[in-house]
Design goal:
Blueprint lengths: L44 E5 L3 H15 L7 E5 L10 H6 L7 E4 L4 E4 L1 H12 L7 H31 L5 H21 L13 H14 L7 H4 L6 H11 L2 H8 L23
Parallel strand pairs: 1-2
Antiparallel strand pairs: 1-3, 3-4
Length: about 280
């Protein structure tokens, strides 16, 4: 920590270790750093992920599809430990050249799918579920899906990083991203004032995309102390919506897949796996 103002150089130079808590995985280039084949299970859908909010979007979707009776949505979920750099293995980079979780391989047709919003859309269209076919209703789902995809980095990479992970507390950065996070929560709260779900009165992939981030915030599951700091009690409609989603069995299962620790499921290969953690 220093009191000396930072003056950017004319040309920035990467110094390994300058990324704070994530210095061991952050770098300014893409591509594989090691040759690693990915494991493959018996199901058509192979998910390579970690139970962060972006990963939870997809495991919630897959569990909701199974809950709705789409048996062909059964899947293998393999843990990608991003803190260990698993996302830079050659097999993972072949599926997602951006080296970010989640990544999906559909073995039924050889299609790779990356970016969580793309995966949700792909699965919704593949199984004809959680995405309306009527043009107006479909557009409203996409409005909110893309809202989350665009807004989410301000919550995670902005507010979350500077509030919880940065090597020093910078008031300007925390104030800036807290203001934006609270503005987004207000947008969502206002939208939910007369709707049961985000895009209307039907549950959709928009809810699945938004819940792990904004539901996680108001439920106090993201960034220790952030719920109090953000005064989330102000957002009564978001709290009601989050509680409704949290009560769904498929959401409960999806929340624990590709997570480690007590009560979590590091890998998922069949519905029977949930019994090992008391589901």
């Amino acid at each position: 920590m220093t009191d000396t103002p930072y003056t950017p150089p004319a040309v920035w130079t990467w110094e390994p270790g300058n990324g704070g808590q994530f210095a061991n995985i952050n770098r300014p280039i893409s591509g594989a750093t090691k040759e690693v084949e990915l494991p493959v299970g018996e199901h058509g859908l192979q998910l390579y992920s970690m139970g962060t909010p972006n990963g939870q979007k997809v495991t919630i979707m897959l569990e909701e599809l199974l809950e709705a009776g789409h048996s062909e949505a059964d899947y293998d979920a393999w843990l990608i430990k991003i803190g260990d750099g698993d996302q830079f293995g050659s097999g993972f980079v072949d599926i997602n050249p951006n080296s970010k979780i989640p990544a999906l391989m559909d073995r039924s047709n050889g299609q790779r799918v990356f970016e969580s919003g793309s995966i949700l859309t792909y699965l919704a269209e593949k199984f004809g579920a959680f995405l309306p076919t009527e043009a107006g209703a479909r557009a409203e789902v996409f409005n909110w899906l893309f809202w989350q995809m665009g807004a989410g980095p301000y919550v995670g990479g902005g507010f979350g990083h500077f509030f919880a992970y940065a090597p020093e507390k910078i008031q300007y950065a925390i104030d800036r991203f807290t203001m934006e996070t609270k503005r987004q929560l207000h947008v969502l709260d206002t939208n939910l004032a007369d709707r049961k779900f985000v895009a209307g009165n039907e549950y959709s992939i928009a809810d699945m995309a938004i819940y792990p981030w904004y539901g996680g915030l108001v439920e106090g599951r993201l960034y220790d102390g952030s719920a109090e700091f953000l005064n989330v009690s102000e957002y009564e409609n978001v709290l009601r919506w989050a509680a409704d989603l949290a009560a769904r069995p498929a959401v409960q299962r999806g929340n624990v897949v590709n997570r480690t620790g007590e009560g979590q499921l590091a890998e998922r290969h069949s519905a029977e796996d949930f019994k090992t953690i008391g589901f």
